[in-house]
Design brief:
Layout lengths: L3 E4 L2 E4 L4 E7 L8 E7 L6 E7 L4 E3 L7 E6 L4 E6 L8 E11 L2 E6 L3 E6 L1
Parallel strand pairs: 2-11
Antiparallel strand pairs: 1-3, 3-8, 4-5, 4-9, 5-6, 7-8, 9-10, 9-11
Length: about 120
Amino acid sequence: QVQLVESGGGLVQAGGSLRLSCAASVSLFSINDMGWYRQAPGKERELVATTAGGGSTNYADSVKGRFTISRDNAKNTVYLQMNSLKPEDTAVYYCNAKRYSGFLRRDYWGQGTQVTVSS
């Protein structure tokens, strides 16, 4: 089992910054991919950014150049630095961990943290 605990959400004005943290209950070396997803009211959950064990990263087009995902393996923690925030970034942000075993994939989710960007 993998438990994920997010923190760092809040209310910020447009153009501001926030840093989200996701602390995992296990070593990040035992997880294949870590990532952040978000879900705005009335919309489906969408990928924001991911980081693989080898260090590669992937971003949604809407956040490229503004958001940065990083990991601290010693602290079993993944971060999402969000700069130049826009009102459309308002959503509940969820941390995700993926473990692969052969053709099987298991997803783990945090409880979510609210990010609200005012105009």
